[in-house]
Amino acid sequence: MFSVTYAQLNGWLTAFLWPFVRILALIATAPVLSHMAIPMRVKIAVAAFISLIVAPTLPAMPQATVFSAAGVWIIVNQFLIGAAIGMVMQIAFAAVDAAGEFIGQQMGLGFAMLYDPRAGGNAVVVSRYLNTLAMLAFLVFDGHLQLISALIATFHSVPIEANVVAAASHAQGWRVLVGYGGSVFSTGLLLALPIVAALLIANLALGILNRAAPQIGIFQVGFPVTMLVGLLLLQLMVPNLMPFFQRIFDVGIGEVGRVVGGL
């Protein structure tokens, strides 16, 4: 008669559950993978499938039951590790959103809002446009596969029993994550700088024209002109966006390695 002991059942459960939590945390926070258009059942199924593949290749699990205090603390640590990796790439996409905000404000489209299901709120229409291009580029450059590969590699560099919260030696990883978050403004401004500078010159030209010929009615002419110039420059910039997006994603993958190394 086939029988299973509690120790065997606990070993099988921990070998699957703890990697599953780390992988699911990444899928719940990473760009594209966490999109609201993807059903929750699909996300859980993908995390479970990856866990079934990864679990047999992992070293021995800690000797702790799942529902004990030590087991729950391990689950918390696995969630934080996966979420930290996903947030690194979210910061890269936040820089693209910031560029859209800068361009939209300069074009006079700051009031033109669309619902963003990824962020769960309204976003400037230019920001939505650039974010859609960034997501397509992320898939084309296999960014989602690189992210999953980097997560799987963390099971050897940051083992299951690692305590990334209480141990002071792991604080460097969190500092790297916070420091990388500061690049959102600089990267977004660098992406938006050509259009922002061109629109600034256009506004200066309109101001000079208003001083030279006040009867033109610059307030009626200025808004359509800045919008048309902005849309034209945005269209001209699209072919050059892909190399910039690839650089942003490469930097993000590099930051994932630094965060994991610090953890």
UniProtKB/TrEMBL annotation:
Subcellular location: Cell membrane; Bacterial flagellum basal body
Membrane topology: Multi-pass membrane protein
GO BP terms in the entry: bacterial-type flagellum assembly; protein targeting
Residues spanning the membrane: 12-32, 44-61, 73-98, 119-141, 184-206, 218-238
Cellular component, GO annotation: bacterial-type flagellum basal body; plasma membrane
Record bears the keyword Signal: no
Family classification: Belongs to the FliR/MopE/SpaR family.
PANTHER family attached to this UniProt entry: FLAGELLAR BIOSYNTHETIC PROTEIN FLIR
Protein name: Flagellar biosynthetic protein FliR
Species assigned in the record: Caballeronia novacaledonica
Organism ancestry: Bacteria, Pseudomonadati, Pseudomonadota, Betaproteobacteria, Burkholderiales
